[in-house]
Amino acid sequence: MELRIPFSWEERRPVLLEKFFYLPSLYDGHENWQKIPWNDDRLFGNDRPVALECCSGNGQWICQKAKEEPDLNWVALELRFDRARKIWGCLQRERIPNLFVLCGDARLFARHYLPKETISRLYVNFPDPWPKKRHAKHRLLQRPFVDEAAELLLSGAEGFFVTDDPPYANEIVTTLTTSPFWRALLPSPHYKCNPEDYGRSFFLDLWKQKGKSIHLIHFQKR
Ligand SMILES: C[S@@+](CC[C@H](N)C(=O)[O-])C[C@H]1O[C@@H](n2cnc3c(N)ncnc32)[C@H](O)[C@@H]1O
Questions:
Q1: How far is the CA of 24 from the centre of ligand 1 (A)?
Q2: Model pLDDT for residues 69-94, shown as the tens digit of each residue
Q3: Is 133 exposed, middle or buried (CB count within 10 Å of its CB: 0-12, 13-18, 19+)?
Q4: CATH number at residue 180
Q5: Residue 18 belongs to a domain
Q6: Which residues are catalytic?
Q7: Nearest partner of 88 among 162, 4, 12, judged by Cα
Q8: 3-class SS of residue 55
Q9: Atom 4 in ligand 1: residue holding the nearest Cα
Q10: Which pLDDT tens digit goes with each residue over 127-147?
Q11: How many domains does the structure of the chain reveal?
Q12: Which residue, by CA, sits nearest to atom 17 of ligand 1?
């Protein structure tokens, strides 16, 4: 609860402090931002490989991964401030030095803020499925985002996309297979169901409890 947005709505701007980068919504000065390399002391201060998770929710999955794989730098990206604050709370409480939190829209971070060709692994775990037809346009994993996200990755870096929603899984596969930036790593239909040892998250546990299939789509940047 100590972490608060340090300005009024009228003065909104991106802020980077103490392992937390806040990008307010309805901000229009993205072009003014100078991208910061991951080895800058305000980010990780070292050259270890970086893994990015988009749609981190309350951060249960990424906090665990960061502890299990300390030789990687882990970046949690979450739209909602209350959820991003929870991840930051976990980072502080459990002293996880290889974790950093980005709070804001993944599409804006990918386009304007994150350095290109620097990320070794991309995870998007349970992006909102927007199941109604008229809402499907809000889905994150469609163009141009999947291509802009690929630009952040090193060549050969892997992308893991997880959803419980079968139509969304098929749409993600179609989007990735028709993109010039991605190559499937699993045979058709390019996902596997209910992977073991993927880790735990709020939504993974919830959907498992409800007996839903978890689709893991695995691609690689060409
Ligand atoms: C269904 S939840 C999944 C949370 C977590 N991955 C889990 O498995 O428990 C989807 C999350 O994506 C976040 N989200 C939605 N759109 C986003 C965007 N454009 N950029 C970043 N995060 C987004 C939501 O705020 C929400 O926390």
A1: 16
A2: 999 999 999 999 999 999 999 999 99
A3: exposed
A4: 3.40.50.150
A5: no
A6: 128
A7: 4
A8: coil
A9: 57
A10: 999 999 899 999 999 999 999
A11: 1
A12: 79
Q: Is residue 201 within 8 Å of 57, Cβ to Cβ?
A: yes
What does the DSSP assignment read for 146-180? HHHHHHHEEEEEEEEEEES-HHHHHHHHHHHHTST
Domain that holds residue 183: 38-188+201-221
Question: Residue 133 falls within a domain, yes or no?
Answer: yes
- Rounded to the nearest angstrom, the distance between the alpha carbon of 135 and the centre of ligand 1 is 16
- By residue count, the chain amounts to 222
20 within domain boundaries? no
Distance of CA 90 to the CA centre of its chain: 17
Nearest by Cα to 57 from 120, 8, 128, 112: 128
Of all atoms in ligand 1, which is nearest to the CA of residue 206?
9
Ligand 1 atom having least distance to the Cα of 55: 12
